[in-house]
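Please check what follows.
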Amino acid sequence: MSDFLLIHGSAHGAWCWRDLIPELTALGHNARAIDLPGHGQDGTPYAQVTLDGYADAIADALDTPAIVVGHSMGGYPITLAAERAPDMVQMLIYLCAYVPKPGLSLAQMRMEAPYQPLLPHIRMTPDRKGWTVPDDILHDRFYHDCPPGTVEFAAANLCIQATQPTSVPVTVTERSSHIPRRYIRCSEDRTIPPEYQVTMTRDWPADHVVTMDCSHSPFFAKPRDLAAILHDFAKGQARPG
């Protein structure tokens, strides 16, 4: 079977893959998750966190060739990590994630979406090098269809998200352009508009894109279904969206 390396999105950590890892293991895969710098158990101060640091952490974690899954913001660092360690990345899977567009930072891509569901809720740190969101919007924006207890678990673990990683573009070159790429859209996403997920993957082959009818957090909402899709991608038997 396959080795999966799971990369979280903004303000999250390895903890968000808690329910998915056992499902992938049950299907015969090896799956692990890491904390990017400044997230989870990693103590890097948010003001020192960079996109380069994210990509280095992913590349360093690839001690064996793996399928790399990036959630949300994680689409940017997994793309950059693939540029740095192309021989260690078997496939890139974007889970309701930003797929870097030439010349644009993630923040610029976010503003290209038809509406900005998260922007009104972002609370900047005094130094403007990081941001958080208030607990009272977590259910509605991130976890509205997730099991009881999810919001409380997440609220206890979410961290300040550094702004630097979202302020710089990523360029895909011949070093990594050959790596297979797949996308999982979330049709009930209230963070990255589903319409924009369609826009980002409009020119992708139909069997490279799958749609889940769930929120921005399929690893909590539908971990078994998500594992089955990842399993199919790993086997090269992607189901059309």
User: Anything to note?
Assistant: The longest strand covers residues 89-95. Confidence is low (pLDDT under 50) at residues 237-241.
